[in-house]
Design brief:
Layout (H helix, E strand, L loop, with lengths): L2 E7 L8 H11 L7 E5 L2 H9 L4 E7 L22 H4 L1
Antiparallel strand pairs: 1-2, 1-3
Length: about 90
């Protein structure tokens, strides 16, 4: 099984070196605090994590332990042309 990294942003980029840390956090996929991402374990991801190690925490996890999000419905029902809501139930 492939190893994955569970990465969580724990600090903001506001008081950090803006020019160095902000692009790295964007490249990792972070936009807000306390978000968790799962990335493949590779040397370039590890290098980016070392650059912003004071802003994130990470741990190695197995691919099978990643929670799967359920797909939500669209929130509405598509009716055929000419059909009413009572006819579809």
């Amino acid at each position: 099984m492939a190893k994955m990294l569970k990465i969580t942003q724990v600090k903001s980029t506001i008081n950090s070196l803006y020019d160095k840390h902000r692009p790295v956090m964007r490249a990792l996929g972070f936009s807000k605090n306390y978000r968790t991402l799962y990335k493949n374990d590779s040397p370039h991801i590890r290098g980016m994590l070392q650059r912003v190690r004071h802003l994130v925490v990470w741990e190695e996890v197995d691919e099978t332990s990643i929670p799967v999000r359920e797909k939500k419905g669209r929130g509405f029902t598509v009716l055929e042309k000419g059909a009413t809501r009572s006819e579809t139930k």
